[in-house]
Inverse folding.
């Protein structure tokens, strides 16, 4: 069996074992198998359906490291599986000098247990690695966006913007904290091409980012109040907290509402109606993670 055929077989097996709910997608409708459809993997990995088909059939023989990284993240591969993916594709396995998007099993279990709160998991460059259905219902379906457009730093400074409002003071704190995180990540991973590209593209696309980056602003994450202007349930005033994952660069962003408040009631309603009423949340003032 050739390497490309083995790669295709491995991709099909990983796709078949991945349940939609595990990657933040609705699992309703008639399915021939429990795993992901090619169209769903295409959305998650920001690749065309035709390219997924050619990979699985062994007709696309030289996937780039960027493609492999997207597939590994979308399929939730373990460290060993991710290494095997690169070997099958004939690409060097990323070393410790690159940003990791591997989510430990304990973090996955935590996410499953917090299914009533909108949350996302982000890597050291603040790329969105994982999200739950509540996060998609609150802020819009991220599968409709490219990987770059899912990054909250990119969305804040460049767009497309979230439908979120926050005070100028909180907005300034958010920007300082995120720029500080990017600067620290670049120092830890100076050879990561994706991270370097993100920083340079941000500097080119946003004069505000470039000014603050060059000025060396420094900040830290604090609990933040944000108003999400939701088209179905109305405005929700929520607390946004950033939780660090010990032993990794991952960060979990969680939205919660005060107990007994109208916002908590709206959040529960949002959990009931889910993403079926949404598509993408309409654009508004920037500032969401």
């Amino acid at each position: 069996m050739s390497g490309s055929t083995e790669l295709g077989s491995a991709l099909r097996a990983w796709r078949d074992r991945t349940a939609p709910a595990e990657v933040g997608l609705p699992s309703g409708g008639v399915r021939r198998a429990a795993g992901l459809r090619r169209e769903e993997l295409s959305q998650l990995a920001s690749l065309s359906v035709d390219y997924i088909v050619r990979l699985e059939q062994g007709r696309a023989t030289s996937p780039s490291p960027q493609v492999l990284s997207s597939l590994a993240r979308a399929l939730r591969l373990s460290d060993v599986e991710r290494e095997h993916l690169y070997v099958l594709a004939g690409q060097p396995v990323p070393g410790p000098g690159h940003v990791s998007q591997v989510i430990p099993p304990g973090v996955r279990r935590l996410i499953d247990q917090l299914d009533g709160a909108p949350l996302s998991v982000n890597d050291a460059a603040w790329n969105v690695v994982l999200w739950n259905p509540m996060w998609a219902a609150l802020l819009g379906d991220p599968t409709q966006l490219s990987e770059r457009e899912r990054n909250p730093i990119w969305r804040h400074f460049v767009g497309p913007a979230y439908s979120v409002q926050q005070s100028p003071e909180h907005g300034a704190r958010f920007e300082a904290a995120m720029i500080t995180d990017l600067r620290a990540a670049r120092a830890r991973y100076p050879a990561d091409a994706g991270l370097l590209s993100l920083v340079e593209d941000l500097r080119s696309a946003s004069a505000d980012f470039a000014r603050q980056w060059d000025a060396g602003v420094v900040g830290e994450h604090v609990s933040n109040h944000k108003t999400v202007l939701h088209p179905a349930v109305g405005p929700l005033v929520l607390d946004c907290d950033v939780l660090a994952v010990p032993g990794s660069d991952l960060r979990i962003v969680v939205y919660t509402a005060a107990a007994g408040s109208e916002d908590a009631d709206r959040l529960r309603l949002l959990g009931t109606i889910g993403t079926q009423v949404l598509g993408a949340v309409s654009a508004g003032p920037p500032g969401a993670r």
User: Anything to note?
Assistant: The chain has 13 helices and six strands. The first strand starts at residue 119 and ends at 122.
